[in-house]
Amino acid sequence: MKVLNARGVGKAVLATAAAVFMAGTALAQDMTMWVRDGSAANAGKVLAELWNETHPDNQIEVTVIPNLQMVTKLATSIAAGDPPDLISLDLIYMPDFMRAGSLVDITDEAEKNPNFDKVIDAYKEISTYEGRTYGTGFTPDVSVIAWNKDLFRKAGLDPEKPPRTIYEIHEMAKKVAALGDDTYGFYFSGSCPGCNIFVTSPLMVAGGAKMLPRNGEDTALEGEAVKEVLQVYRDMWTEGLIPESAETDNGANFVSGFTNGNVGIAGTGGFVIPLVESDFPDLDYGVALLPGLKEGQVSAFVGGDTIAIPRGSNNEELAREFINWSLSDEAQLEGLAKNGILPVRADLATDNKYFADQPKVQVTAEALKVGYVPWVFHFADMVNSDSSPWINMLQRAVFDGEIDEAIEEARERMIEIASE
Predict the structure, then answer these.
(1) All domains of the chain, ordered by start, with CATH?
(2) What contacts 411, CB < 8 A, 6 or more positions away?
(3) pLDDT recorded at residue 2
(4) What are phi and psi of 290, to 5 degrees?
(5) Which residues of 247-268 are buried (b: 16+ CB within 10 A; e: fewer)?
(6) pLDDT by residue (tens digit) across 137-147?
(7) Which of 8, 78, 91, 275 is the most buried (most CB within 10 A)?
(8) How far is the C-alpha of 83 from the C-alpha of 282, rounded, in Å?
(9) How many angstroms separate the CA atoms of 191 and 252, rounded?
(10) What tens digit of pLDDT does each residue of 319-345 get?
(11) Any signal peptide, and if so, which residues (predicted)?
């Protein structure tokens, strides 16, 4: 009889334990997040890993999507009703997805959480549509100008003084190129539309230019800086200050064009800093804000990703919790800054213990604050496609010398695209 009672108690205990386990399982939820490959994926993984460490019952599974496939895959998954719970999205595509109703409105979170107001302005602007908020900054990147200090020394230039205008870029490039021995003054990827909106357009914006139209009634490519920058590029090209390989470079050598060590000046991004430290420790270089036509004019292209919730997410409430958490001190400092990644909160971008002794990173943090991102629909057609009016203008102006004609044709085509 005691054995039977023992067995009865054992069954009761097992039943109770099973019930507790099942209840716990029902409460636990896992989320899915897509991130695009490259530096954004690394930053996204860092934040997901920290979340998983601190939220053991609500794990995030990260899937890395090839950058060129992300927009199509995301749109298809939303249309099919099977999207990821969270999306780390190239910020330039936010306007198109917001207008299409493809993202969840998180205005309530933005109004209740004071950290939303602390986010870099460019990320707040690109995540807002018709007064509503659909995302926030997640994994930032930003453009800067880099110069080779060793080549500056050899050319008789002050290695601690970067170019402060587009014209100084030209003059310094001449002196570096005069060193000979396969040494060039300047580099850019002449067949890469994305590279050039990232590092060439800020030179124009710093000089006061208006770049892309928001609609068919807007203006495009306005201001003397558009022509002036293209003219300087053209002059450097005809003077042999830029290697011939630049004309056909589709971005494959966007970074190596500078890190090879035989180029004096190049536009680049904050991502180059950890790369040089790990792979090119002997390269003595500096980074500065991209200049305009006059000293004191500076700008940058704010890139990177926003974080948003696709319509149809199976874990919308938990996804909202993750977005709130991503802006916390813990995530911004112990997740991003600790790993050498810029925070997206302006109050922490420069003022944190991890960047105190990293002057190059401090420069990129300042670039985030002065940078811009174009809020436009159809960005891919205007800029990123291989046949976009942006890259056609750049190539015709720099390599063929048809500057005025190229600007006018690109302006007309951009306004046509904005009207669609």
Answers:
(1) 30-141+303-370 (3.40.190.10), 142-301+374-419 (3.40.190.10)
(2) 220, 221, 389
(3) 31
(4) -65, 130
(5) eebebebbbebbbbebbbbbbb
(6) 999 999 999 99
(7) 91
(8) 45
(9) 10
(10) 999 999 999 999 999 999 998 899 999
(11) 1-28
